[in-house]
Amino acid sequence: MSKPQISVLIPLLNEEESLPELHDWIHQTLTKAGLSYEILFIDDGSKDDSWKVICELKEKNERVRGLKFSRNYGKTAALDTGFQIVEGDVIITMDADLQDNPEEIPELYRKITEDGYDIVSGWKKKRHDPVLSKNLPSKLFNWAARKISDVKLHDFNCGLKAYDQKVVKNIRIYGEMHRYIPVIAKWNGFDKIGEQVVQHQARKYGHTKFGIDRFINGFLDLLSITFVNKFGRRPMHFFGAFGVISFIIGTAITVFLIGEKLYNLWNKLPFRNVTDNPLFFLALLTVMIGVQLFLAGFLGELYVKQNASDISYVIDEEI
Questions:
Q1: What is the pLDDT of residues 266-307, one digit of tens each?
Q2: Are 14 and 53 spatial neighbours (Cβ–Cβ below 8 Å)?
Q3: Which residues are paired to 11 by β-bridges?
């Protein structure tokens, strides 16, 4: 089979009922649009017959590929693995629960290939989810993500996204960072990020695999990747700066207390010992914190230097 124009990457967990319908829908849509494709299903440790269904789909359609994890590693692991093996010029990610509409794919593909976007993210403007348990937390989460990351997307959680191949081949994701692929991509120089309003459909089979905890974990992940991106290769700039500030504050308080005592002694005024003043212990604490932060930054710099060979940089062009 020749290299496909589109790779549809679908991570899944216990979605045996929806897979045949999703496959047929994708096949009909892309065949009608005249686009060559491959579909890569990644079974993330399903306990039902999802893998059996994938094998049956492979017998029907040679464009189907499958990968099965030995256990549930999470959506990020599935996407990261899939990104390394897909072959299409444009990679489409979507969920397996039929809430994403495959008929959006041709327009997503066009925006990548004709409009020159690196990433086009879906925006489920009208959602068919419970308001209190999903819609409201999602709005708050997306607002915080926009403010912190400076990536102007309305829906970071939407699984329907399109990527130029060069993007997915030059980034790595881990933990639960799949929500922030546009953020990671932007920090790697892929800043042509667009958005497309997409149709969101009510779940037809089974039940959602995500709870309210994903928003809490997602916010913590956002703080993590923000810190790693800004200071991961120069930890002294973060820890050292706070360490020096803390050390200076502690030293200044100590000098003030000693100066105050000497002044009172010189002028024969009442005084108390420096160690009897509560400010002295605050000064001692800030000095100790400052030293520890500085040492943390120093050790971080040593670690980065020792692992400098693992640092990769994205080369956009070469002549």
A1: 887 887 787 788 888 888 899 999 889 888 888 877 776 676
A2: no
A3: 42
